[in-house]
Amino acid sequence: MTFRTWLAGAVAAIGIGAAVHYHQLGLTLAHYDARAHLVVSRRIFDSLIPGWQQVGGVWLPLPHLLNALPVQIDWLYRTGFSAVAISIASMAVAAWAIASLIHRTTGSAVGGAVASALLVLNPNVLYLQSTPMTEPLLFGTTFLAVALVGRWAMGVAAAHGRPTAVAQRSAAAAGGPPSAGASAPDYVGASSVAAGWALVAATLTRFEGWPIVAALIVLAWVVLVRNGVGALDGLRRVRGLALWPMWTLLAFLVNSKITVGSWFVSSGFFVPDNPARGQAWLAWTEVWDGLARLAGPLLPWLAFGAAVVIVTTAFRRRDSSLLVLSLAAAAVLPWTAYFRGHPFRVRYDVALVAAAAALIGTAVAQLPRRLSAAMGISVIALAVWQAPPLDRNAPVIVEAQRVSAEDAGRTDVTSYLRDHWDGQPIMMSMGSLAQYMHDLSGIGFNVRDFLHEGNGELWKYAMRSPRPFVEWIVIQEKADRDEIFRQAQADPRFLTGYARVVAGGGIALYRRIRT
Description:
Mean pLDDT: 89
Number of helices: 24
């Protein structure tokens, strides 16, 4: 068993233990988005109108496609365990990938261990990988993309006759000059196909992946040029690599246009009330503050210093370690969101925790061997001290429970539906109440029992006049979240013929009046 395989297994073992811990605390499905992701996966087959159009266009589809078949089993749907398994496996892939990249570029096993430890021991990351949330899959796909693109780039450099860092180390140990031929075996099979598929997966997982992929492709060209490939030849090769995510992005946009009527859904799901709206520097300070809250005040500065080390050493090393910088591009998404007025969400910075872990691990690996182990242990100890693993009050865990009072207040609505529901479809916005749809699975409801945005023309007609289509309507009475509520406010006739029968937890249940 190689060190990288052992490291991935250790990360998976830690992940399983954490998942059991948070399940015992009742926190596996505490975040409303965790339940919503399960509903989106389930609705692909379990819907009034099942099929590919249920993949939707608000969230990226890969997490839901991976979980679509498992969640058709009611137990896995209600517990979310299949999605948790995907999260745990993704973290193991991330550990294997970053260890592979660092070992190939520096020959150090310490750097990969440090990066993996900083990632998996952070309490916020550890919690998210114990849930159906999609951040862990982002870590797995982006880290794998960085590792495979790095392997591809160095394979191209080896084919051009330039000695790689691996060959240089081997030659130095042997006391002779490096040769191009000696480097080629290190990158046998370094096909652009594997790297391309990894880029596709990263593009289809979370929106943070888009700027990461873009930065990775640009840095891949820099690495090629730095390793002796001509600028124009490098552009040609990188263009071929870029076509993979470009065609993927185009397919997503077309699917979004067909399914939700918009090329890209960027508004309508939040009220722009962030004081950083239109303030570039203030938006950036919120991003920095979020990372400091998640990982402690020192880790962001350590990551910044690591980035400086990586850039500096890139001018005297011929390897692909520079590609790790692409992970920091995840900051583009929260910065853009806050600049547009999106409310602050500390979870949006979790991808930067992963980026910081990779940057620091790569920089530690570039230190002299006697120093790297001591520095690695010190950094891990500092990170654990500032952000203790399994901390019940970790920011993401606290944020995940911010609507728990609303969830508890809906028992009256749930009881009424259990006692009076007659099998007729219930109109409910999945954009605002997907988590409540999942909650109702506990009393036997399926996704096909609801009329929601994924039901195409049927939903559009019902939004004009629901009475011919549905017996029941559930509305979350908040204009920033519920499309039905906004429509009812705009059209006083919308709820004509319906009686409000029960309310609680911020939602109201209406039933059609029988004449």
